Amino acid sequence: MSYCVNCGVELDKSQxxxxxxxxxxxxxxxxxxxxxxxxxxxxxxxxxxxxxLRSIAVMLVTVILFLPLLVCPLCDFIITGRITWSVYVxxxxxxxxTVVIPPLxxxxxxxxxxxxxxxxxxxTFLYVINKVTTPDSNWFYILVVPISIFAMFGFHIILWACRxxxxxxxxxxxFLISAFFSIYLExxxxxxxxxxFMISWSLLVSAxxxxxxxVFLLISRMTRLRAFIKKRMHL
Amino acid sequence: MSxxxxxxxxxxxxxxxxxxxxxxxxxxxxxxxxxxxxxxxxVILQAALDDIRKRIxxxxxxxxxxxxxxxxxxxxxxxxxxxxxxxxxxxxxxxHNNEMPYRVxxxxxxIAIEVFHALADGTGGMIFLRSLLARYIELKYHEKxxxxxxxxxxxxxxxxxxxxxxxKRYARFRTIKSRKELHGYHFQSEExxxxxxxxxTGIIPFDKIHEKSxxxxxxxxxxxxxxxxxxxxxxxxxxNTRVERPIKxxxxxxxxxxxxxxxLRNFALFINPGIEPRYGEFTFxxxxxxxxxxxxxxxxxxxxxxxxxxxxxxxxxxxxxxIPLGIKNIAMYIAFKMxxxxxxxxxxxxxxxIDLPDEMExxxxxxxxxxxxxxxxxxxxxxxxxxxxxxxxxxxxxxDKKVEREFFTSLVKAGVPVLIESNCL
Lengths: 235, 425
Known about the structure:
The complex is a heterodimer.
Chain A: E1 2-3, E2 10-11, H1 46-80, H2 86-105, H3 110-133, H4 139-164, H5 167-192, H6 201-221, H7 223-233
Antiparallel strand pairs in A: 1-2
Helix pairs in contact in A: 1-2, 2-3, 3-4, 4-5, 5-6
Chain B: E1 8-10, H1 17-21, E2 29-36, H2 42-55, E3 61-65, E4 70-74, E5 82-83, E6 102-107, E7 110-116, H3 122-141, H4 166-170, E8 198-205, H5 206-215, H6 220-238, E9 247-254, H7 256-259, E10 268-271, E11 274-275, H8 284-298, H9 301-316, H10 318-322, H11 325-340, E12 346-353, H12 358-361, E13 364-371, E14 380-386, E15 389-396, H13 402-413, E16 419-422
Parallel strand pairs in B: 5-6, 9-12, 12-14
Antiparallel strand pairs in B: 1-4, 2-7, 2-13, 3-4, 6-7, 8-15, 8-16, 9-10, 9-11, 14-15
């Protein structure tokens, strides 16, 4: 019989490590009985079956997307003698692949990882489109990059808020970010359209968002107000 | 069985939530198992299952969808015993077990029944297991099993009461009790992927733990609940959370003991003893006192009946009844997310001492009870005692085993030896 040196519990003969603290079992007087019957069979788990199903889905998506990737440039080259329209297909297929596959592959922190991958692939995709369709225009650098960076920044702040602060404060913060985003968007658009910056439509959006942010902040901070609303509006 | 002859039954009050909140990969289940001294013969087990299904009508029910509610319908669909898996208590329903709300598994000497909670509660599940076990021993060892408490023999007469909705029978509707409660602390840790489950069983000499609980003048259940609260309290204080939440452990109360119903369906209510860490630091003795007095106060027929009435009054409201099932499912899912598992930090279900007739006891080594993974993955425990040992099984969907470790090491520190086995190899 072996005991965990850390927890002091006796361990079943099949345990190679303590299930409570992961300390390995080392018993010089008793070699580990690798063939000791385990309390649960080492069969394929439901989770394992799910993983297998996901890997089949990955393979299927890969094959389906690989076909146009092979066929379109070939047709394009045979017909026109060079690569023209098939660039769109290649870019779109690669983009679709990078959007569809990560949720099937990752096990943990799926949201954050997928959003980051989508961020980079969207940037790359739009860069390619920019270079192929309008090589003289700089819309990728002026519009896409700043908007994407702001969106990522906002996403991470909201994510942090979801984990750290209460729901009402998070909603308030989201409205605050939206208010800034609308002004920032109008500014970016005015730079792109080469107009002088004047707050117009974004004022309406940001004012509404700020008002809502304030309302939610007040509700989250004022216990008595929250109790009053709860009393008056309960279902 | 012809379609015209098929009988159907409404789901009981406690059962209604489970089909509504079931997802593609998760359902609210529990598992009862018995380990025999010899390896199980699957052919005989199948024959025993087929035999007891002829007697226990509850095992011939399949879950069906109505326009407004789910319901159970009698079926002659076959149920096949299956080899056990590495991660027990997986989702029940769907193609894998022919839509039946339970499955029967075997592994070496172990026979296990995993039950979807809509069909029965732990006590009902244990009666299924004991009856299956009795029939198996009759067939395998040609023993004559006598009439015994909580064992349904194939030769016995069917009793309509086994299928009754006991909640409806006993609720008096003189008063209802509010369900308002503060949300409890939830142990934070990385979740195991794909609804995987970690199972850790502690095997403890019953007399030692009984002796220990006597030191604090509490019952064994109260002592274990106090240990659980203590473990969660340590986890919360080490997590550096800004707001300390109440630590509550949900304890099912078997209402059959109060109302003497013979139902095999759900007939249990939960009470949630716990502590409020914002009042200050609690010593272990103070926790045991809190739990003991709470249990004594709330485990009373009148209070329980009022809770039962509250639950039934929601279900019986004409507006609720008239809402189509699809919308009701969404509403119940949201309600479950808001109030179901959020109110408590954990659950502890103790089926107590399992006694079998001598004719069966000589073949059975162990009887165990296990809860399925909760939707939020919170660690929870279930226990049985059999032949001088107590089997406390923790199931969890969390990576971190801090709570389980704290629980078992406190027992060791208190001088109670613990033997650990697990599915984490």
